[in-house]
Amino acid sequence: MPVREIATKPYPDQKSGTAGLRKKVAVFQQPHYLENFLQAIFDVEASLKGKTLVMGGDGRYHNRTAIQTAIAMAAANGVAKVIVGQGGILSTPASSHLIRQSGAAGGFVFTASHNPAGEDGDFGIKFNIYGGGQAGEALTDRIYEASKVIAKYCIVENVYVDLDRRGVQSVGAMEVEVVDCVDEYAKLMQTLFDFDRIRDWFRRGHRLSFDAMHAVTGPYAQRIFVDMLGAPQSSVMNSIPLEDFGGGHPDPNLIYAKPLVDLMYSQQAPDLGGASDGDGDRNMILGRGIFISPGDSLAMLAAHLDKLPGYAKGLAGVARSMPTCRALDKVAEGRKLACYETPTGWKFFANLLDSGRITLCGEESFGTSSNHVREKDGVWAVLAWLNILATTGLSMQQIADTHWKQYGRHYYARHDYDELANDTANKVMQNLIARMPELVGQRFGDWTVSQADEFGYLDPVDGSKASAQGLRVVFGDAARIIVRLSGTGTKGATLRLYLERYETAADRLGWKTGDALAALATIADKLVQISEITGRKTPSVIT
Ligand code: G1P
Ligand code: ZN
């Protein structure tokens, strides 16, 4: 099959954000747009030649087209073998696992995560490297530099791979293996969790409701929860992946997964409620009448994970992103575990996981996972909780109450201000930066500022540095106010304000989150001045 070299001109906007390159579908549909970016990867990562590449996506609009292009370009760039999920489907954690398990040199994950899909929606690509983790800052910067000067790309023309037919096909000298998207992932889960015990828990009448939100986790939930663990069919909601995610916004939080939340607060509530996002890496966890915030879920998992077969040896250490609440730190302190604080974005956990420093990590943005893959993992989190419930025999409420009594409770919320003009968003940041030096020692309400700075990170494994990773105003152990700019938006700038308040007194553990954070929100208003500067009276979304 002849390889063609096609002349092209660079696009200036191919810089990867927090989780890959993410743009409107129409941007990706521009002539040579995807091809340029992929060629930049092949040019920079010469090690893909002669090796295996894993490909799959969350099934959103443009997924199949992009995968056909990527396969044709892989063949032209000397890749030996492509492993692709049937129908072009692979969840982000399943991709990470396949890369690890097959010893592939890397993988392309086609997703814009929880961002809406469809012709007018978003599309994206994440480049994952050997070992299954996302390409780090240094590598994505080199790819960006290459994309800015690209003049040609290589492709084998008229390639068509039947993505629905399992088995091996060939494109010239390159082998393409279409694999079931769940098989290997399900096997991995069986090594981590006690499936017999969970099956028994279901047999005794306990119930789960999982909302796949018409996104990628449908097939995974169906196979694992229903077929393998014996949960009734009704346990999985919205299980068919759709190209537009059913018109929804598959972000598992209190706003976008409202039907599940309503169910969990109703008379019919099952024991456990879970949801995952577009590409299957996020998770939301609820019990009957109780929402477990991601920061709490992470801390509670840290406290219970060693009861589960895959973690019986105990945890090596734990990590959370800077804006994630410090509930995890309390468990780490109590159990004498190393606890790391990283910048936002899963890629920062990779070195800690690879070097064996940590077993468990998570982010406030509904992301949790362990060292079994190098991505966050929604179905894994639900299974972990199922296993904890089945093993302890406790309810979610009982687990949470006991946890808060022992470690104290962190009330937490994130306020997002979407689609701001870039200048306006920057003004908010600059305004706070300018005020920071004078803040330490100042008293606001009940709290005194102990630290006010811009977060930077020195990777303890490879010594790399990341600067400008968010502004934080810390009131000792008692509270934090954090502000940062999102790196995943596709329209204007998104500003995120994070509020955290810690309480230990028994009569302060049962507050409603909104009430607990009201005073801190008022202080944040005064300090950060978002309303004054942006003219926005309220956030676009509170999670
Ligand atoms: C957001 C989350 C971050 C997460 C990322 C990808 O990034 O805040 O924790 O890793 O999505 O799911 P942000 O838009 O804040 O840069
Ligand atoms: Zn995602």
SSE order and pairing:
Layout (H helix, E strand, L loop, with lengths): L2 E5 L13 E4 H4 L4 H12 L7 E6 L5 H14 L4 E9 L2 H11 L3 E5 L11 E8 L7 H12 L3 E5 L10 E5 L2 E6 L3 H10 L2 H9 L4 E4 L5 H12 L7 E2 L20 H7 L7 E5 L6 E5 L2 E3 L1 H11 L12 E5 L5 H9 L2 E5 L7 H5 L5 E4 L3 E4 L7 H15 L3 H12 L1 E12 L1 H14 L7 E2 L2 E2 L2 E4 L2 E2 L6 E2 L4 E5 L3 E7 L7 E11 L9 H16 L1 H5 L6 E2 L1
Parallel strand pairs: 3-4, 3-5, 4-9, 10-11, 10-12, 15-16, 15-17
Antiparallel strand pairs: 1-7, 2-6, 5-6, 8-9, 12-13, 13-14, 17-18, 19-27, 19-28, 20-21, 22-25, 23-24, 25-26, 26-27
Helix pairs in contact: 2-3, 2-5, 7-13, 10-11
Can you characterise this structure?
- The strands form 7 sheets. Strands 2-6-5-3-4-9-8 form a 7-stranded mixed β-sheet, with helices on both faces. The protein has a 6-stranded antiparallel β-sheet with strand order 22-25-26-27-19-28.
- It contains 17 helices and 28 strands.
- The protein folds into 3 domains: 3-180, 3-Layer(aba) Sandwich (Alpha-D-Glucose-1,6-Bisphosphate, Chain A, domain 3); 185-407, 3-Layer(aba) Sandwich (Alpha-D-Glucose-1,6-Bisphosphate, Chain A, domain 3), CATH 3.40.120.10; 409-542, Alpha-D-phosphohexomutase, C-terminal domain (TATA-Binding Protein), CATH 3.30.310.50.
- By secondary structure, it is α/β, with parallel strands linked by helices.
- The protein is globular.
- Helix 10 (294-304) packs parallel to helix 11.
- The longest helix has 16 residues, at 513-528.
- The structure holds 1-O-phosphono-alpha-D-glucopyranose and zinc ion (ZN).
- Zinc ion is lined by residues 113-114, 277-279, 281-282.
